Amino acid sequence: MTLHADAAHPDLVSVGVPTHWYNLAAELDQPIPPHLHPGTKEPVGPDDLAALFPSGLIAQEVSTEPYIEIPEVVRDIYSMWRPAPLIRARRFEQALNTGAHIYVKYEGVSPVGSHKTNSAVAQAYYNSVDGVRRLTTETGAGQWGSALSFAGAQFGLEVEVWQVRASYESKPYRGHLIRTYGGTVHSSPSNLTESGRAILAAHPDTTGSLGMAVSEAVEVAAANADTRYALGSVLNHVVLHQSVIGLEAVAQLAAVEPDGADVVFGCAGGGSNLAGLAFPFLREKIHGRSNPKVIAAEPAACPSITQGEYRYDHGDVAGLTPLLKMHTLGMDFVPDPIHAGGLRYHGMAPALSHTVELGLVEGIAVGQHDAFSAGVLFARTQGIVPAPESTHAIAAAAAHVADDPNEQVVVIGLSGHGQLDLPAYAEFLDGNF
Amino acid sequence: MTLHADAAHPDLVSVGVPTHWYNLAAELDQPIPPHLHPGTKEPVGPDDLAALFPSGLIAQEVSTEPYIEIPEVVRDIYSMWRPAPLIRARRFEQALNTGAHIYVKYEGVSPVGSHKTNSAVAQAYYNSVDGVRRLTTETGAGQWGSALSFAGAQFGLEVEVWQVRASYESKPYRGHLIRTYGGTVHSSPSNLTESGRAILAAHPDTTGSLGMAVSEAVEVAAANADTRYALGSVLNHVVLHQSVIGLEAVAQLAAVEPDGADVVFGCAGGGSNLAGLAFPFLREKIHGRSNPKVIAAEPAACPSITQGEYRYDHGDVAGLTPLLKMHTLGMDFVPDPIHAGGLRYHGMAPALSHTVELGLVEGIAVGQHDAFSAGVLFARTQGIVPAPESTHAIAAAAAHVADDPNEQVVVIGLSGHGQLDLPAYAEFLDGNF
After folding, report:
1. Which of A112, A153, A176 faces B423 most closely, judged by CB atoms?
2. Mean pLDDT of A29-45
3. Which residues in B lie closer than 8 A to residue A146 (C-beta atoms)?
4. Contact, B172 vs B200, CB < 8 A?
5. From the centroid of its chain, how far is CA B331?
6. What UniProt keywords apply to this chain's record, in alphabetical order (chains A, B) (predicted)?
7. For chain B, which end, N or C, has fewer CB atoms within 10 Å of the first or last residue's CB respectively?
8. How many whole angstroms separate alpha carbon B162 and alpha carbon B136?
9. Model confidence band, residue A12 (pLDDT cutoffs 50, 70, 90)
10. For domain B78-114+237-429, which CATH number applies: 1.20.120.1460, 3.40.50.1100, 3.40.640.10, 3.90.380.10?
């Protein structure tokens, strides 16, 4: 497969690992509002970001090119599990009594079991190019932390992860996974950082939040010249890397459904999973080749699109990050400790928020019980136990098509498997939520 | 791909889901010694087995056909994850400083994360054809129990699993997985059966064994007309079903290595994983198309091939099963509770034992520390965290090729992933073994 750097061509050929990432923003009439410096409130420049990110990622953060070539070594690592399968979920269709053709794009085949590796490998690569020795990051359920730990091992980088306490305590397996890849993991808030100590002093019993964990990781990166910070979602360069999901899915779907997708569902926490899947489908829409609806399924406990405000806000709880124009519940919002730890983020990627404002994407909030009901049905019919995050997209799609004979083509982003989240399934089966 | 029912043809074409299972025994000059009735010591007939197994599986147990067609519905379910990938492990090769070309046949892509689904789906199908309502089985680490639970869900069968206590207590996630698919799981020995109660009375603190769990599951199946028993390894029909692993691997390898494999490594507990991978490679050897060595990597704690006797023995601890001619440590052997729960079985598949006697397969015992060392190296280079069972094959292969410039072609059976075994990795990283 060759993905030409030419947005006028549909790239609907047989599927391999994409050669380029796709940057939807470059094809929109209105640009994404810039990130602002937290002090000056002026748009941040490359120099402002250099303390946190390597040059290659900073360039991608503000790129106006629609296609950016994937470095050979990154593509080589991708090829260890990519292209990820697009699976027709016929048994799930039968159980839903629907005429819809349901396809799941399954990212659980990656080494760590989720889509997070797509950006982790790219970020580790660009950091290694700049001579960085250590990466710090936050993680919720642990998908991102384990992905970065794996990626760091590929490029000889140390990886240090602050994991939200609620997940650190209830899901120890992903901490083990981080360590198996050679990384280290701390419960957040920790007493290793000023941010963490301040939060613990004020709220010693906090269950933690992604915003708190971001503050800790950013603080350590900013204070050490050989250390940079890696963010698992939200930012434009992360959304860019995840576009391999949708690029593959568009091509895979074209081989079996010539008219393309009618509706695309993905779960949205920070937004990169959904944007990665959906933006190549929106490319098809923009270029008039198909007309898909895109639905962002977010948790009812943390509904930034459906309940948040669209305004500038910090990405972390301590206000260390740039101000991002996004749908936000407020930087100090602490959601309930739902099992979908990866969806417990107060904001939504500026790139995705922008497409919501343009009417290209709409949000829907899904309750945890409904999400797991759909997840169990999916497991029993298709075998794959979905990540708790992914169950939100499955539930939204199931509600959309159940008992409807309409032969619409539905694509669901199955962002990862839930084998390390099985205690959550056990609690659901025990009737605890 | 079409796998012709013609042993004279190499089937080295592009890879899809095999259409037939392969039965090596039908191509050997000496037949596998028959199973014997535990009372009469005469070869068992179909009637003797009918209380435990459905007719389709009994026919396969004694089949003399080299190829048996895979039923359409079974093949359809296989296609949800098959063909499983054959991955060139270049980063692992580099770390080993070897000239060998190392390929791993990765069964972890199946819904439950292991090869066990290959036989589980087939067994559930043949039971459903005979009108069976419920299946009972044993499981060690839980790979087989969860596979059968998944398979039961596909055919509307209840599944009841007795899991070896050591694994039930140390690895609760696979019990959750069994329940997620709709099955039920008990710690074995349990007080639900006569066998279990007798063992508990004599050894209340036992860590359990596969032999004990077999006795419990067999007892319940034999006592209930609507219930049959399903065994996850050892028997000829299980070995047959697992041949899809090797059939795919031979064809996949032929596309990149025209001379085929030089050495094939697989872990061996009950033997079906290794036999499933290796027997199609032995077909190539028998027909003079290549000359692979086959190495069975077994745990030093349960070394049935390298330390056991080749004689008739029971498959379970209570003596309820037929007598099987196999390498055995004795039906009452209780291995240490090593993390590779799936390798804690006292005997070895008669079909595999037979090929050992014929000089087609040789055994090697691997210690747990060496196995996990190799597993961690594999995870850090290739991303995939191997199942503890699979680490034994990886360790044996690594020892065989390390620092050797010889460009030999090595195939390793990666029977499953170890994401549900991560506490074992944590213990290893903590230096506990």
Report:
1. A176
2. 94
3. none
4. no
5. 19
6. Amino-acid biosynthesis, Aromatic amino acid biosynthesis, Lyase, Pyridoxal phosphate, Tryptophan biosynthesis
7. C
8. 8
9. very low
10. 3.40.50.1100
Asked whether A401 and A408 are in contact (CB, 8 A), the reply is: yes
Give the C-alpha separation, A92 to A382, whole Å: 6
Query: Count of CB atoms within 10 A of residue B405's CB?
Result: 10
Residues in CB range of A404: below 8 A, 6 or more apart: A98, A99, A100
Are B176 and A426 within 8 A, CB to CB? yes
Pick from A30-39, A48-57, B12-21, B276-285: least confident: B12-21
DSSP state, A189?
S
A282 and A419 Cβ atoms separated by less than 8 Å: no
* Cβ distance of B173 and A419 shorter than 8 Å: yes
Among the CATH numbers 3.40.50.1100, 3.40.50.300, 3.40.50.720, 3.50.50.60, which is that of A86-114+236-429? 3.40.50.1100
Strands B323-328 and B309-314: antiparallel
d(CA A325, CA A308): 12
pLDDT attached to residue A223: 94
Q: Is the pLDDT of residue A2 over 80?
A: no
Asked if B298 and B363 touch (Cβ cutoff 8 Å), the reply is: yes
The per-residue pLDDT for A129 is: 98
Look up residue B82 and give its DSSP letter: P
With cut-offs at 50, 70 and 90, classify the pLDDT of residue B15. low
Report pTM: 0.94
Closest listed residue to residue A220, CA positions, set A158, A173, A164, A177: A158
Quick: pLDDT tens for A190-207. Answer: 999 999 999 999 999 999
* Contact at CB, B383 and A177, closer than 8 angstroms: no
* Interface ipTM: 0.92
Contact A418, A425 (CB under 8 A): yes
Q: Residue A68 forms beta bridges with which residues?
A: A21
Contacts of A380 in chain B (CB under 8 A): 153, 180-182
- B110 to chain A, minimum CA–CA distance in Å? 8
Q: Does position A5 have pLDDT exceeding 60, yes or no?
A: no
Contact A422 B420 (CB under 8 A): yes
- The reported pLDDT for the residue numbered B403 is 98
Kindly list the distances between the CA atom of residue B263 and the CA atoms of B229, B298, B413, in Å, as whole numbers in the listed order.
Answer: 35, 16, 11
Comparing CB atoms, the residue among A117, A153, A419 nearest residue B419 is A419
Number of alpha carbons in the 13 Å side-chain half-sphere of residue A7: 23
Determine how many CB atoms are found less than 10 A away from the CB of residue A134: 16
pLDDT at B7 exceeding the cut of 50: no
Give Cβ neighbours of residue A212 (< 8 Å, ≥ 6 apart): A164, A188, A189, A195, A196, A199, A206, A316, A317, A318
pLDDT digits (tens, 9 = 90+) for B169-188: 988 999 999 999 999 999 99
Chain centre to alpha carbon of residue A321: 18
DSSP for residue A109: G
Of B176, B381, B385, the CB nearest to A425: B176
| Residue of B80, B177, B179 with shortest CB distance to A382 | B80
Measuring CA to CA, which residue among B79, B106, B90 is closest to residue B16?
A: B79
Domain extent listing, chain B: 78-114+237-429
pLDDT band at A15 (very low <50, low <70, confident <90, very high): low
* Euclidean distance between CA atoms A118 and B169, whole angstroms: 35
Q: Categorize the per-residue pLDDT at B317 as very low, low, confident or very high, splitting at 50, 70 and 90.
A: confident
What tens digit of pLDDT does each residue of B98-146 get?
999 999 999 999 999 999 999 999 999 999 999 999 999 999 889 999 9
What does the radius of gyration of chain A's CA atoms come to, in whole angstroms?
A: 20
